[in-house]
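Curious: explain these tokens?
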Amino acid sequence: MNAPVTDSARVDVIIVGAGLSGIGAAVHLQKHCPTLSYLILEGRQRMGGTWDLFRYPGVRSDSDMHTLGYAFKPWTNPKAIADGPSIRAYIEETAQEHAIEPHIRFGQQVTDLDWCSRDALWTITTENSVGSGQYKARFVMMCAGYYSYQRAYTPAFAGIEQFRGEVVHPQFWPEDLDYAGKQVVVIGSGATAVTLVPAMAEHAACVTMLQRSPSYMATRPARDAIANGLRRLLPARWAYAITRWKNILVQQWLYRWSRRSPEKVARLLLGEVRKALPEGYDVDTHFTPRYNPWDERLCAVPDADLFHAIRDGRARIVTDHIESFTPDGIKLTSGEQLPADIVITATGLELASLGESKLTVDGVAIDPADTFTYKGVMFSGVPNLISTFGYINASWTLRADLTAEYSCRLLNEMQRRGADIVVPELREEDQHMTPRGWVVDFTPGYFKRVMHKLPRQGDRAPWINPQNYRTDRALFRKAPLDDGVLRFRQATGAGESLVGAPGSNHVQG
């Protein structure tokens, strides 16, 4: 059952990525589809994904681990807001418990996904240390995350070439960076900057968080007292399940309240910030965004660590624009000079689709941006491929778990029908839908920069990306698979293309 296979074998399923989503998908596959063979292709030399890549000081999740953790594996660490190494250890422990590592091929960066209808097979091309490799599979579960591992976003800063200090992006943190006693400027106001500033302030001479505009911040305890109390009274699985549902309901309630009464939520959040900072602190300038709560993600501040660093004088926030770098720091448009030995550009990620791999169907190149998303997990006209994308308004793994369950439902239905192929196809009434962005009501810069590269939503089900846990639970677990859009077929044999007429499954207009 799910026995490890040799690289030369054709497998039933290939999972791309051995991070939180990929390891979780493998566990679901082993449980729900025990007769299917599978491999995991991982571009790096270790599992962990995000939690292996990011090594900057204080790296942690801004979601609680009772919802970022897997539904099937209790999180038992007393800290609910966990650091990166603890999350990676949790992923490794999951892989070990379920004997997943023998299925992983490390150092295999997927570059091309090529579908052949004649054989009903994907050919997956990878780059590795000795050149390239190829794998074949009936089905692909893409669990490569949503951003580029090779590139990060850094704006063009005037005069940066004359700066005599070090410039570092958090995604590519050098292990030997010594910032003890140094003047550090962190450019950015998102979750990474909010994490870095208090962590670096423990050893740096001073850390300045330089932002063009503020983000909403929510103070929360790093430890969940209810979860830790329940664990003393109940078996770990029961305590975890209760805490998980408690936190899911709180997340959903807060998000809905933010959408319904943004001004009330803003007052609440800013009121908590004022309580945490010295009396008279300029909260209006440095902590009051121009947008509504949850138009962008809230930044978690565990145990108010950022505010403690500000109160103690170890960190400060400057809200201004950069005119140019200077040899010794940064000159702002206000005329202020920020001295710096080290500048950290916590300026964001570069979003990517399908792990930056190229996609073809029967020799025709497919641009994901020219497709409609089916339930936020498949692409119109693209067979036998599921792409995992978590929530922007809740913990990533909540949706990754549901996506893996849905993939297994689909694979079992294919086996039951004797079908080789499953593909979402636009119906006649769908041909002229109004395209919408991959997500709506979410406007951070890193999304707006690349929204044109991501699949589109339609204006009706099932061509939408709900981003709602309650909706998705019903959609993925119980909604009929035979919905008039998913087509189950045999291999064509004669080479008939599933792409159909040009544009038939693609965005019109």
In short: The CA atoms of residues 50 and 370 lie 28 Å apart.
